[in-house]
Amino acid sequence: MADYQYHDVSKMVDHSLLPPTLTEADLDSGIDLAIAYEVASVCILPYYLKRCAAKLSGTGVKASTTIGFPHGGHTTAIKKAEAEQAIQDGCEELDFVVNISQVLSGGWDYVQNEIGVVTELTHAAGQKIKVIFENCYLQDEHKIRLCEICTELKVDWVKTSTGYGTGGATMDDLRLMRQHSGENVQVKAAGGVRDLATLLEVRAIGATRCGASRTAEMLGEARKQLGLPAIEVTATGSSGY
């Protein structure tokens, strides 16, 4: 017997539709897949967010997009403008990349100010923010300091990766981030969670969200384990995320 219910796992999944090669037809069918599997959110290319938010309205699946993606090197002003546009287009959750260069340079005042600007804007609009560290480029001391800053600023999630760096989520990083983040800060895994067993493993560590493109495979297996009927939807957006 499985020790979870379907929505325990489906509502962990942020279905990723971020590869630049996805067509409008791919994006639309990916949104339909996310609705069918009752995931937490769709994280989509920013230009298609408005359409995505309209399609998701009333479904219980949230519209999300990226800010400063994937390298984090945009100026604070540009990240702020991206966030304002995303909120205007119906974004409910913003996945924001830190300035990795400044993290590695020890520019903690810059990093804290930038996260604070976008977090304040997001929360003022009644929406939520996930702060992406891109752990594959960082040392543990960087990750710990980012967790401390994000806790102080009351961000909603700290997130391991973009899925487009040299590595994705690791169990050690998830444990570290959970240990050093405040109780009110959730943890999101991204990159490398490609099957149900791994999804359940990150859940056991304390992650509440997971960025994924293999949604149909993971949640199809969950439905099979739980004795639920299969869902017939063509999967799109696979990127190795």
CATH topology: TIM Barrel
Count up the helices: 10
Spell out the helices and strands N to C. Answer: HEHEHEHEHHEHEHEHEH
Show unreliable segments. Answer: 237-241
- Give, in spatial order, the strands making up the sheet with the most strands: 1-2-3-4-5-6-7-8
Biggest β-sheet strands, sense, barrel: 8 strands, parallel, barrel
Determine and state the CATH class: Alpha Beta
Question: Could you characterize what this model shows?
Answer:
By secondary structure, this protein is an alpha/beta fold. It contains ten helices and eight strands. The protein has a single domain, classed as Aldolase class I (TIM Barrel), CATH 3.20.20.70. Strands 1-2-3-4-5-6-7-8 form an eight-stranded parallel barrel, surrounded by six helices. α4 runs parallel beside α6, α6 runs parallel beside α7 and α7 crosses α8. The longest helix has 17 residues. The chain is globular, with a radius of gyration of 17 Å. Belongs to the DeoC/FbaB aldolase family. DeoC type 1 subfamily.
